[in-house]
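Hi everyone,

Forwarding the result from last night's run.
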Amino acid sequence: MILVTGATGNVGRHVVDGLVAAGAPVRALSRTPKPGFVRGDLREPDSLSGPLDGVDTVFLLWPGPDATGAEAAVEALAKGVRRIVYLSAIAAEAGFWGRIEKAIETTEVAEWTFLRAGGFATNTLGWADMIRADGVVRWPYGQAARSLIHERDLADVAVRTLIEDGHAGHRYDLTGPDLVTQADQVKQIGEAIGRDVRWAEVPSGVARQQLIQAWGDEAFVDGALTYWASLLQHPEPVTRTVEQLTGRPARTFRQWARDHAADFGGAVT
């Protein structure tokens, strides 16, 4: 039995679908009662005992931007299970993901695998309101080059590592197949929805004030702006790990944009 946490999210729902398609026994976890799901909350470790009954393997997606309570949750998950596959980040050592990795490593779970993802293509859904409104994305650092990954590629890799042997102790760096600047991402979204969508460069100082109003966390905003600025000279890495593990190339950002055209106001195809 495989327990999937984050089962209603962008990645988790595809993991559930992939496991079902592979004929694997799967149990989907939700923080709120839903038909077909079991109720449990990673931030409430005592709520996990029922969902973990009979579980051999866990797919872990931590529900938040910090690791508060992660050690207690990991300890609860590790009791009686053989394998944990954790959706981490390439920047694990620089963020809370590394703390969760360390918590998993220090348990007595027999096998762990860390899927260290690069930037999620789904984060560009944050531009959807602007694109729907007037087709202009006002954002800083248009020439920042990113190797964003499709959530379905993360799910496909997760399914392999959940049902196959040979992945214990591995840290897999996962990205999209190529670099695409933020301005070109906007262009490709426009092509996908059949509209003229433009990039409008916003000075970083102006963007900072707007993002603080929208996101609320000054430290998070400053970290994001500093990171995007760094990509002008040092673009994100591109790996071939998705292809090595699944036997097919990772999906491009252009493909992601087509898959999500309806989210940006395009026609459903």
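The chain has a mean pLDDT of 95.

Cheers,
N.
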